[in-house]
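ok so for the tutorial part 2 we go from a plain amino acid sequence to predicted structure tokens. step 1 is just haveing the sequence, like this:
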Amino acid sequence: MDFTMPPGAATMTCRVMEEEDGTLLLAQADGRKADVFTASCREADIRFQDPSRTEIEDGDLVVIGFDGDIMETYPAQLGEVEAVWVQAEGFDDTAQLCLEVFQDLAEEDAALAHGAQMIGLDLSQTALSPAEQSAVALLLEWDTGLTVVQGTMEELGDQGYIDMENLYWEEGYFLSFTETERTDTSLTFSAQLWKSGLGALFLCDCTTTRPLNGPWADYTVGAVAVS
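step 2 — the prediction. this is what the tokens look like for a chain of 227 residues:
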């Protein structure tokens, strides 16, 4: 099925990071760190390349046709959305998998996360684009109500957040997700929640699979380590 955007519409190809009540959180495809947008598609003409689809899902790759206006907030807001073209290929909900894993880590050892004011987040060892990583940080902020700062543990130490000499973060905790092997239909990864050298939880050799252009299934943990 083909679709032509309305004449004169500006277009942008994006990953749907979250859909809620007709509002989309979007990360521009292959975008930079700041290329995160919200858009209302309640009045838009929504079409699906796959005729069996009827709903936009988190992870969809879409082409947005809009009036060209962008409000310089964060995330930036696209102007009037005229059309949304949902691609049949390119679906990837790795961001949602990361958020699920981080929630599981926090629930598994709630004491490590208790009382925190900040979260450090490292997704640099994933296939997520810089824009998608920023969108995950934003969703994590919305979910927890905490400030999220991105960077490796060493970078956050250099910025003064983590006491690297005593291996301790008084005001926060650090989350990371590391992909070790990825194919179109399988993923092996590890993840951690770190508070200090003596307070950390690691999920090791986790695996999950998916159909081509489909969502990741429930993951299996290979091993759990605590310090």
